[in-house]
Amino acid sequence: MNPLPPNVASLRPYQSARSLRKGNGWIFMDANESPLEVAAPIAPPLNRYPDPTADALRDAVAEYYGVRRGNLMMANGSDELIDLLVRCFVRSGRKTAASTPSYGMYRIAADSAGADFVAARLRADFSVDENSLRAVLDNADLLFICSPNNPTGTVVPRELIERLSAAFSGLIVVDEAYGEFADAEGVPSSIELVRRGAENVVVLRTFSKAFAAAGIRLGYCVANERIINILLRMKPPYNVNVLTQAAGLALWRRRDAMERNVRDLIAARKVLAGGCERLGCSVFPGRANFFLLRPPKGISAQTLHESLVENYRIVVRRFPNVPEMEDLLRVSVGTPEHNELFLSSLARLLP
Predict the structure, then answer these.
(1) pLDDT at 10
(2) What is the CATH topology of the domain spanning 55-254?
(3) pLDDT score of 32
(4) What confidence score (pLDDT) does residue 30 get?
(5) Residue ranges, CATH 3.90.1150.10, the chain
(6) Candidates 3.90.1640.10, 3.90.1150.10, 3.40.50.150, 3.30.70.60; CATH matching 6-36+256-349
């Protein structure tokens, strides 16, 4: 076999707890999934190929946001869109930029495409440093902004995104995977910038989080029609299967159920975070279905993580390779029973 291209040979794949911990009995509070299901009965015929552009879904989403069908593309999860955006819009010898720490797939998409990746450090409170972010945009074609940010839960002000859009000649991709949680707490979405005519802003959203449908792999982007047309040219012919399209449309038509679940999860996040604080932990404020936790003095994040796994089969997220987060854990809101079990387990493990 011929040698692999250097970017492929050195590529580090994205890993989740489900890659590492197989079998039954695990309580996964690490992946930011929704523990609350939304029923979406579907039974479409399977003998025909799906609509290549998922127009029924595009029309439903476009109507809600007050944009045209041509401003939307449906995809096999937001990850497909992240990959397509890098491959479509980052030219040879140019860079992909983001903040750090943030979602790991931005770097993986750049590495997969053989593009350089540069990142600006967030401040100590995990807010964006505008000057640092502007400094990494030299020779960049694309900037990823995750808001609310994974893994910190912090939001990036829309006014900052608007300023960057005006000053940056490349594409700004605002990843709002947790946007429905931010919506519920009154945080303005960058979809409004697309409605106002911004030509270099792309907003990503997903059915994986608030819609409790991580298993169907469905995401979408809202952008200028020229950008959408380029993405549609590059995508695989039938990237969103017929079952996913049917499930997505059924879920979209039940937005009221999703919005109730979002409110319930925000309330549960506040209760869970408050319980952690009463046990001596520090909690960073966030606007998603998870939060960052710092254990009390005298116990490391690594020790607490290992104790939860070994004694209670509870999995939360650690960040051993992120220097500014080595002493932090990310906790996703679980079912009421899982949240109670997490707090009672924490109480037994902490001094």
Answers:
(1) 72
(2) Aspartate Aminotransferase; domain 2 (3.40.640)
(3) 77
(4) 75
(5) 6-36+256-349
(6) 3.90.1150.10
- Residue 351: predicted pLDDT: 81
Question: pTM of the full predicted structure?
Answer: 0.91
Residue 88 corresponds to which tokens in the numbers above? 């479509």
Q: What is the 3 state secondary structure string of 49-104? A: CCCCCCHHHHHHHHHHHCCCHHHEEEECHHHHHHHHHHHHHCCCCCEEEEEECCCC
Judged on CB neighbours under 10 Å (0-12, 13-18, 19+), 201 is buried
Q: How far apart are the first and last CA of the chain?
A: 56
Residues forming CATH 3.40.640.10 domain(s) in the chain: 55-254
* Region label for 135, one of left (φ > 0), alpha (ψ between -120 and 50) or beta (otherwise): alpha
Kindly state the percentage of the chain with pLDDT values over 90: 85
The dihedral sign for the CA sequence 186, 146, 335, 251: positive
Query: Residue 291 forms beta bridges with which residues?
Result: 331
Task: Give the C-alpha distances (Å, rounded to integers) separating 244 from 44, 81, 210.
Answer: 10, 16, 16
E strand spans, 159-278: 171-175, 201-206, 219-222
Instruction: Name residues of the chain where pLDDT drops below 50.
Output: none
pLDDT value of position 297: 94
